[in-house]
Amino acid sequence: MRFSTLGTLEELRERLCIEPVNTGRQIDMCGVVSDDVESLHAYSNEKGQIEFASGIEFPSFLYRGQPQEWLPCLSGIGRLREIAEKLRAFSRTVAFEELVATHPLVEWISREVRFLGASLSVNVGGIAQHYGLPTDMLDLTSNFDVATFFACCHYDRRHGYYPVRASVEPGVIYRANSLLLDIPEASGGYSPTETIGFQLFPRPMEQRAFAIRLQRGKHFDRHPQVQRILFRHNRKIAQKIFDKFDGGAKLFPPDPIVEHAKIAEELFRFTRNQLDSAWVRLEAWEGRCFHGSERREVEERADLVEVDTPALQLVGKHFALSESETARIRAVLNQSRYRRAAYLCDFNPDPGS
Fold first, then answer.
1. Three-state SS across the chain?
2. Is 352 inside a domain boundary?
3. Domain range holding 264?
4. Is there a domain that residue 146 lies in?
5. Is residue 353 part of a domain?
6. Residue 351 lies in a domain
7. Nearest to residue 164, comparing CAs of 244, 241, 228?
8. pLDDT per residue as tens digits for the range 294-310
9. pTM to 2 decimals?
10. Which of 122, 278, 279, 333 could pair with 91 as two cysteines, CB 3.0-4.6 Å apart?
11. What is the pLDDT of residues 36-51, one digit of tens each?
C-alpha cells in the first residue's frame, strides 16, 4: 500500500500512534495480559528447539527503515543479476556459516546448554544475514525506534553509519502486521518471517531482529501485508536519533566475529564442499540445474579458486571459550521470559547443565 510523503519521522510517530516501550504498561490482548517491557521471550519451534525473540512479547508490527526507496525491495541475493555474482555470494555465505557453526560458543550451546529441557536453536543463516553476508533474507525489527535509525542514517563501508544531512529523496518505513505475515492465506505466497533475536552474538539481539525470506521474483514492497510509508528527512531529527543510539554503537556492539564477516565478504578461495553447497543454493534459487562445463565456466567467471582447507578460520584469543562469556550467556538465559515455551510449573531453564 503506497502513501504520499507524510511529515518528518517525529510526525510519523504520532500518525502511526507508536507507543513508548519499557514503561511497564500492561496490554490486554483478547484476554492474554502482557506488557511493553523488552526482553528475550522463549518459545518452541517446529523442531522442538528453543528460540528467543528479542523485544516486546507480542509485537503488533514489524518494521524496516531505509533512507530512501530502492525499488524493488529485494534481498541481498535478489539484487544480484549475474549468475557468477550469485555463486560467489552463496559461496561466501556458506563459508561464513561454517565458521559460525564451529565457534566455541555455538558448539558449547549445542552440546551442553538446555532450556526447559530442550536444546537451543542457532540460526546460522540469520547470523550471516545480520553480519552483512548476502542471503535470501531481508532484515526486519520489532522496534520502531531501531527502524528509524536505519531510516535516517546512510552507511559507508569506510566510516560506518552517519545521519542524513539533506536529501531530496524521502525516506521510507515499511510496516507489516506481524500476525498476518505468517498466515499463508494472507501472505500471498511469501515465506513466513523468522525470529533471529538472541543468537549468542550481540548484534541481532540489540536490533530486535527478525527476517523474512524472499523467494526469487518476490519483492518485499509488493507483499500484501506491507505498507510503504514515505517521510521527509530532517537534519535535526536524524542527528537526534543518531545520538540516541550512540552513533550506532548500541545496535552494533563490539564483536570480534565482525572482522571475520568482513573477510568473508571479500573471499574468493573455497573448498570443493563449500562450492558444492553454494551450487545447491544457487540451483534452488534459480529453479534449474547446472552441469559440467557450465559449472566450470561460471566458477571461472566468478574468479573462484578451489582450496583443500577452508580459507576462513577462527583465529585469535577472542575465540577461546571463556568463563566470562559462558557466564554472560547463562545470565541472559536466566533473565528471559518463557510463556510461549512452557507453563510455570515446568520451568527449569538450567542453562549451565
1. CECCCCCCHHHHHHHCCCCCCCCCCEEEECCEEEECCCEEEEEECCCCCEEEEEECCCCCEEEEEECCCCCCCCCCCCCCCCHHHHHHHHHHHHHHHHHHHCCHHHHHHHHHCEECCEEECCCHHHHHHHCCCCCCEEEEECCHHHHHHHHCEEEECCCEEEECCCCCCCEEEEEEECCHHHCHHHHCCCCCEEECCCECEHHHHHCCEEEEECCCCCCHHHCCCEEEEEECCCHHHHHHHHHHCHHHCCCCCCCCHHHHHHHHCCCCEECHHHHHHHHHHHHHHHCCCCCHHHHHHHHHHCCCEECCCCCCCCCCHHHCCCHHHHHHHHHHHHCCEEEECCCHHHCCCCCCC
2. no
3. 9-346
4. yes
5. no
6. no
7. 241
8. 999 999 999 999 999 99
9. 0.90
10. 278
11. 999 999 988 888 889 9
Name residue, grid cell 502486521.
Answer: 177
Task: Retrieve residue 102's grid coordinates.
Answer: 564451529
Beta bridge partners of 231: 171
Q: Cell 527449569 maps to which residue?
A: 348
Question: In Å, how far are 137, 168, 249, 254, 340 from 235, measured between CA atoms?
Answer: 30, 12, 20, 27, 42
Please give the tally of structural domains in the chain.
1
